[in-house]
Amino acid sequence: MTPTAPPHHLPLAEPADRYRAMRLVRGFEEQALDLVREGVIAGGIHPYIGQEAVAVGVCAALRDGDLITSTHRGHGHVLAKGASPHRMLAELAGRVTGLNRGRGGSMHAADFSLGILGANGIVGAGAPIAAGAAWAEARAGRDTVVTAFFGDGALNQGVLLETFNLAAIWRLPVLFVCENNGYATTLPAAGAVAGGAVERARAFGIPAQTVDGMDCEAVLAAAAGAVERARAGDGPSFLECRTYRFEGHHTMERRLKLGYRTAEEVAGWRERDPLPRAAAALDPGEADRIDAGIGQLLADARTFALASPAPDISGACDYLYADGLRPRAGVTL
Amino acid sequence: MGTATAPAAPAKAARKPATMAQALNRALHDSLAADPTVHVLGEDVGTLGGVFRITDGLAAAFGPERVTDTPLAEAGILGTAVGMAMYGLRPVVEMQFDAFGYPALEQLISHVAKMRNRTRGTMPMPITVRIPYGGGIGGVEHHSDSSEAYYLHTPGLQVVTPATVADAYGLLRASIASDDPVIFLEPKRLYWGKADWSPDEPETVPPLGRAVVRRPGRSATLITYGPSVPVCLEAAEAATAEGWDLEVVDLRSLMPFDDETVCASVRRTGRAVVVHESSGFAGTGAEIAARVMERCFHHLEAPVLRVTGFDIPYPPPMLERYHLPGVDRVLDAVARLQWED
What we know:
- Chain A is an alpha/beta fold and 333 residues long.
- Chain A is built from eleven helices and seven strands.
- In chain A, the strands form two sheets. In chain A, strands 1-2-3-7-6 form a five-stranded parallel sheet, with helices on both faces. A two-stranded antiparallel sheet of chain A has the order 4-5.
- In chain A, strand 4 (183-184) and strand 5 form a beta hairpin.
- In chain A, helix 1 crosses helix 11 and helix 2 packs parallel to helix 8.
- Chain B has twelve helices and 14 strands.
- Chain B has two domains: 17-197, Thiamin diphosphate (ThDP)-binding fold, Pyr/PP domains (Rossmann fold), CATH 3.40.50; 212-335, Rossmann fold, CATH 3.40.50.
């Protein structure tokens, strides 16, 4: 019996909405870590914990019809853009009820109905896809804005710099959002990015600014200006959001005890956790009520995912070509 | 950005001598005119009309919004095409030369080829990547590669290569119309070969995935494609002096692969040689030989042989003629098909 995911809507208009969205992402990731440990999610994940203010702040500046491309650390973006946590969790668990019927997994989750063009396992690869979508939308006469999320590691990928250039010369409605969490896996950004992030964007004539990525409201304010500029046809902008992942690069990292980040450094960033900061701005008791609601939602999502069936092997070669073609068809050995 | 208005197609032409380059140009023109979502982009495709002149006149006819000169950034260009395809366009990307396509392999392999499957059919990638390929023009290694095996090894891609003027038109039209990505490999040394041709005759538009017997014969089958088709036809003529009546199969489309036509021929002749100019090791010919063996084993009088480029980087101009399969090498292979038994 295949369960059906309940309708889902994630408002982001008010500060309480944005706190709720960050709590959703945080709780989703904590539960996903549990499911990795339990062996329900194969292959592990890249946890977004600590960076929630970026995804929620940026998505709060977008309209429903706007588009995003995401990264290998993409759960936060996908959820903040409105994807069903039930279907997202089912996707991570490889179930047929997942966003991509269990075929995308953590790093390729997409929901085109919500403008989520996909997480992406290749660093920087989502940026040109965002530019192409922006081109097509602009040519169709729509004022859609396309956001490309990427990390500090992508700053050293040639295709990102190619895309800066294409978006700038063609004045495409793209918002480039660099989540600088300080490390490309283990390589410190401080020693890996010559010249600096915003300086690179500015070299292409793209307006660029650095914002506190641990402050959802600050991210929203900066993103709103960039989105307005893009929607008006004035071209791309670049935001460097200074943030931090509280967990390792990947769940595998817990076992490795690499020590490339000091305990003091992690603790210092944890003190800047975006969630308590946002909660403090709410009415007394409101954050607790929100937390309880999210807890129930995520428990339901877990039940949904675990009750969903895995894909059948008979469909393993489907959807390769429009006409069902299979390269090795006809061979029986 | 506005939308350029497509001009009317040129008046119907009678059959007359035309080059493959002209047929490809006409195919692009007719595709742009027939479908407002078709968008040509690439390096020098606009103002210059392409280094091989394949896009000549298209920017003037359809405007820079539909025929767009891009910066020299192949990964960025093809990645942009992915986003365009997601939002209603049908991009036709030109990679200026075979080896210029390699910077874009990441987007091609990781995204273009996988998107339909990953999204369970909801997001097809109707992208055509045109690539002038192959040697014979003194182009040295980065301008002379036969790169088909890289693409063939990637499920989700179609790989098409014409050998005649008429096929160049028809296969490119069909490729652009396909809802799945096509790597359209243009044999650059055949660009200027002429044949009598008119684009208005329906038989000039073969569907993808259909091989054709270019020359019927009874002794053995030469299985080939693209720039090696004229070589094999010449070899077949020369072979008559040895008493061999060779059949020549032009695959036209390497993926989808036309097992039916190939196997029907091999079952008739009992012998086969695969001829292509890309390297032999783990190459296209290996797949073809395996397929023939799997399907026609009991009809074979001899092992399937391969005549290919050497397993080396493409050599400099003075050595090209040794590297490229020629008539003599093809006939040497035919001679080794165990006729004495």
